[in-house]
Structure formats: C-alpha cells, structure tokens
Amino acid sequence: MPASFTEIDDAILPPPEVRVLVVDDDARNLLAMRETLADLDATVILARSGEEALKRVLDQDFAAILMDVHMPGMDGYETAELIRNRRKSRHIPILFLTAINKDEMHIFRGYSAGAVDYMFKPVDPVILRSKVTVFVELYRKTEEVKRQAALRERLMAENYRVRAEKLEAEQALRRSEERQAMIARSLPILLYTAGPERGTPFRYVTENVEALFGFPAERFLTDGGFWESRLHPDDRERAAVQFEAMRQGGVSTVEYRWRAADGQYRTLLEKAMLLPGEDGRPPELCGTVLDVTDTRELQLQLAHVQKMETIGQLTGGIAHDFNNMLTVVIGSLERLARMAFDDPKAARRVEMALQASLRCSDLTRRLLAFARRQQLHPESVDIEALVRNMGELMERTLGPAITVEIDSAPSLCPALVDRTQAESALLNLVINARDAMPSGGTLTIATTMVEAEEGDAELSPGRYVRMTVSDTGCGMPPEVLARAFEPFFTTKEIGKGTGLGLSMIHGFVKQSGGQIRVESEPGRGTSFHLHLPCAPAAARKAKEPEDGVEAGPLPGKGEVVLVVDDDRDVRQVAVLTLQDLGYTVVEAENGPEALAVLAGEPRVDLLFTDVVMPGGMNGLELAQEAQRRHPALKALYASGYAHGVAGGLSGEGPGAEFLIKPYRDRDLARAVRKALGGGVADAFPELKRA
C-alpha cells in the first residue's frame, strides 16, 4: 500500500517524545507517582532532588513538572525559580505537591515561583492524572503545531530548491544549446539530415549554411536536386557512386568540388551514415560536410615546396659535379691558349671554347642560386644607389618604348646582401618586365624601408629594405603565378628563356635572409617585392683593401703547396697550374692520405684542399687536424658549391680564402698568394677556437 501523508511527514520530521518530570526526595512518593501516571501516553522521568531536576531540564524538554515543595538542600521554590529563569525551560508548567506547607503564604509563594497549580498530599490519583493529561495533550498539540510549521517550512525550502535547480538546469541547457549553435555557426562544418531517396530535399541543415556557401537554408530544404546540380562535372559521377553507398547503409566518406554562390568551387569532405528508423518511421541520412579547400591548397603548397627542395638538392649536386668538370675544361683550355699563342686560328677556337665554358659556369651559378647553395659575399649595399647606378643599363635594355620611373624613400638603411647577386636579380626582373610589355609601358622601381613585427608568417622580426619592381604588362593568370618561382618553368618561346631567372632570384633572396613576394593579375601588370635585411651597424663600414695582396697573379717563389682533391683530373689541373707559376707541388687524394704526406714532407707552406671529399674527412676537418700538427701551415679551400659540409660553411669571416669551382688560372694564383699571406686561423675563427 502507498504510504499516507502522515507517514511521509513522520519520516521527514518525526513527532517529539512527550516526557513528564516528577521530583520528590521520597522514593515511595516517586514510585506512587509513576504508577499513577503509567496510563498516560508519556514517559515519566524521576528525580530525587532539585539539583537532579535541574540537570534533567538542561538537556530534555518536558510537558509538565510535578515537584515536591519540601526537599532537603534545594527546595521546590528555589528549583522552580531557577527553571523559570532559564529561557529554554521557562515555558514548562510546574505543579507543586506538598503535605505540610498548606497555608496561604506558602501557596502564594508557590504561585510566585511560577507554579501553575498547588496540590496537597495525599493527592487524588484521578484528579492528578486528569490535570497532567491536560498538560500532556497541550504539549503534544503545541509541538505538533511547531512540527507542522517546521515541516511546511522545510517543504517550502525543498520546493524552492527544486525549482531553483530546475531553473538552473533549464538555463544551463539553454546556454549549452546557444553554445552549440554558436559553434555550429562558426565552424566550417555543415550538419544535415536527409531522406534515403535520391533527389529529395534536406530535412534539416544548420544555420551556418548561408555563411559557408552563400545560399539560404530554405534553398536546400525545398529544392531536392539543388545540391547535386552544383557538383563539379568531373566529380559528379564519382560522387553519385559514393552517395549511393551512403544510402545503402554504413558509414561512407566522399570528397568533391561544389560551386558556391560566388561561382568558386569549394572542396568539400562529406561523411554520412544511414540511421535506421524507429517506431515505423523511415530511415534517414545523418552527415557532416567540411570545407577543406584551404587545407587542400596548403597541402598542394607543401608538396610544391617539397618538390622544389628535392629539385634544389638535385640541381645542387649536378652543379657541383658539373663545376668539377668545368674546372678541368677551363684549366685545360687556358693552358691550350698559352700553347696556341702563335696560331691565331687555333687561339680563336680555344677562346671560343673558353667563353662557352664560362657561360656554362654562369649556368651552374644559376642552378646553385636556385638551390640556395651558391657562395655569397654579403656586404653593406646602398640599394637606392644601386638602382640609380643601373639606370642607364636598364634604359638600354628596355628600349625607348618603356618608361622607367624610380621612386626612393629617404633615409634607407643599407642592405646586407651580395652586391653582384643583387644587381643580377634586379636586371633579371627588368628583363622579365620588358618581355611582359612588348608594346611598351611603364616600369617602376621603388625602394623603401619596412619593419617586420612578431607574428609575421614569412619575415623574421627586424628592419628590411623593400625593393619593388612593377610593370604595366600583361600580368600572370593564377595558374602561372603559382609556378612563377618553379625552376625550368617559363612561358617564353623555346630558346628565349631557361626558366631559372626567377628561381635564381628566389634562392638568392631566401639565402640572404629575406623574402620575395609577387602580385599579378592578367591585364593589370606584375609587382615583385624583394625584402632584403638591413645591415647591422658593424657591417656598414667600408671594407678596406688588405695590405700585401698583389693586384695581379704574381708567380710563386718556390713555396710548397699540398693539393688535395678526390677528383684526379681537377687535382691535375691545379697541380700543373701551380707548377707553371713556380710552386713546388705535392698531391693527395683524400684527407688521411694528405696527413700521411704532411708527416713525410719536411716542409709544406700551403694546404689547398677541396671541401667535399669521401673517406670520412672533409676539407675543414683536414685543415683543423693539419694545423694542429703543423701550426705554421696556411690553408686555401675550394668547392663546387659553397655549402660543402652538411649544407655549407658557416661563420666564415672577412678574409676567408675560398675558391669556387670552376676557377681560372689567375683566380687560383691570386688566392694562393693571398692565402700564403695569412694563416688558416685568421681566415676561419672557428678553427682557431677548435
């Protein structure tokens, strides 16, 4: 049976226990009183003295107190006054019982002490029980009223708590729904449900559909074929197969291109599953559509960067090997030129071959520039002055149909770049601008200073000189612009371009610590922005010519030179050239063999070593070990590209002697004379530290 409301109330707040206190120093009277009151629905508590009665009153509540007046120690009057003076017990009715104090004075004193009745012994049990019963019932009614009031207050508090919790839960649910709606609107994700039949409109789409694709939600909810009608033609058949797989059940994923309201195709990744119908309802598709256009573009850019890096490594290696071969060719042709001095026809042919070889050397420099492995000689360069000094050359190159405008901002900081490479980069951009304006136009070269802040995705924080080269030519479409810096890519006719110009500029700028950006639009011209780092104050001082360095290739004076190169032909060219110049030459194929030669030779003045060599010891390591054993030994380095040791020489200071292959006889002669005038520790401070 269900519990009654009274039982529920009693469980929540049980009714209090009713007690009656009997105080008398005579044990017989106490027993008689207990027997008299035994039929009452109350607990009878007995006390033998006033002190014991007070102790009982301290921790218990009573419906009535029956107290003897005459007691040893503390009498009934005194005890009653103390009970009445206590706030928690002053409400308890007190009935005095006496056998001797029956005069009016004692009765008056009893009522004055707080008694509600004054009875004489022997007491009629019926009368006593009737009076006590009245007090017990009155107490019980009073306590019940209090209990009901407390119960109502407790129920009201509980009701308030429940309503507050309900209100808080409703507010939390509303906030959660608002957050979910806000997240759904902000994310590039469309949530939808649709019927399993093809060509039916969506049943539900999130509110962000218009922000994502430019069409209102009603368009998708009313037009069943709208979504499929805007699929890219090349993706329609493949997507249809995947859509059909979705409708067959399970989870399916499909990626396709979809034309948005702006006419641009967006790459979408859709994932959906078929949910079975419940309670006889038909099943429905539930899915998400994620716009991954930017992600796919970044992936393509990353793949392009990786391809460029791979091509750069390949071209750098090819250029290195090609430079070794050109060193042999150029050195041999220069020797033939001296031998064919008396034969003008043979001399002319040798000179033609030599010039062709030098042009090949220029091509390898372009390859190394693209691969960012060419040897740069950065110095403090006034870019504004460099542009103006090249003005006459640019005008001759461009012709009369093109107007050149130079716009320079005042107080430019000098740039820390290789002057020759900077001039070559500017000339390449000018020639490209000329080819983009076959009918004439305007070429604008502007220089200004900019400062990159923290958070720039492409430039490190610092000051840069920005050189902008703009033309009013034909411009580039997006597909050409995306490949502008790709090596060997060109839109020029066959024979009119190698496709290395822009890639060379890109490599030079990146290796210099800068950044190149391009803006172009068909029919509206092209602008290249080269950001070149400003030179620190220490690098802005003019570089003084070093004393003791001859202007021409002076011959040797019998000094002993150790030539180390793993390529036999390259080594032989160097050996023959140095011998012709009057040096005593010994040779070695690799580092360990060179150390053995040094140990057996009484005197070696100069170590001329290739940087990149097999055998576990490169040229720098060889020089370090050789100088440790022979502190007076000088050193000269050569390489097919500058980055010979794990990507390149780092930290080479002013005066470091480094020959780039292919080199000519006079370059070798000057470098040897200069190296003999300074130690390897002066040329490479990091070797001195080691």
From TrEMBL:
The keyword Phosphoprotein applies. Residues 317-536 form the Histidine kinase domain. Residues 252-304 form the PAC domain. CDD domains: HisKA, PAS. Keywords: Phosphoprotein. The modification 4-aspartylphosphate is found at residues 68, 610. InterPro entries: CheY-like_superfamily, HATPase_C_sf, HATPase_dom, His_kinase_dom, HisK_dim/P_dom, HisK_dim/P_sf, PAC, PAS. It catalyses: ATP + protein L-histidine = ADP + protein N-phospho-L-histidine. Its EC number is 2.7.13.3. Residues 19-136, 560-676 form the Response regulatory domain. PROSITE patterns: HIS_KIN, PAC, RESPONSE_REGULATORY. Pfam families: HATPase_c (PF02518), HisKA (PF00512), PAS_3 (PF08447), Response_reg (PF00072). This is histidine kinase. The lineage of its organism: Bacteria, Pseudomonadati, Pseudomonadota, Alphaproteobacteria, Rhodospirillales.
